[in-house]
Amino acid sequence: MPFPKGTGAPKGNKNASKNKPWREAIRNVFINDPEKLLQIAMKMADMAEQGDMHAIKEIGDRLDGKAPQAVKAEVSVSEEHRVDAPPRTESYEEWQKRHGLESTTGTTTTRH
Questions:
Q1: Which residues of the chain are under the pLDDT cut of 50?
Q2: Kind and range of the H or E element at 12?
Q3: 3-class secondary structure for 34-103?
């Protein structure tokens, strides 16, 4: 069953063409009797008001979206990689002078 342009599964979705009979059956029930969906939502709200944590979480997930899940990754390095800095060709004082920085009584000032 193809989707009308602008609706349904995005292009390239591997699940777009799979048959989903359970989803279609439930969808048909609520299309034919929308009052049932409202009754379920009211029951969920009642359960949440009574402190049912599952109902509270479900309502929160539907309204705010599910909270991001933490991902734990383990990384191992099999080889040591070392980067050597180039050898120094001048002293720190020479570098300061070359870059226009002056050293006075042990402090460095920068030209702006």
A1: 1, 112
A2: none
A3: HHHHHHHHHHHHHHHHCCCHHHHHHHHHHHHCCCCCCCCCCCCCCCCCCCCCCCCCCCHHHHHHHCCCEE
Residue carrying the six token digits 């309204």: 63
- C-alpha 44: how far from chain center: 28
Closest residue by Cα to residue 101 from 93, 12, 2: 93
Q: Are 97 and 111 in contact (CB under 8 A)?
A: no
Looking at residue 45, its pLDDT comes to 95
Q: Pull the structure tokens for residue 48.
A: 């949440």
Tokens of 61: 């997930």
Q: What are phi and psi of 8, to 5 degrees?
A: 80, -155
Q: What is the pTM of this model?
A: 0.43
pLDDT attached to residue 60: 92
Instruction: Please give the single-letter amino acid code of residue 83.
Output: V
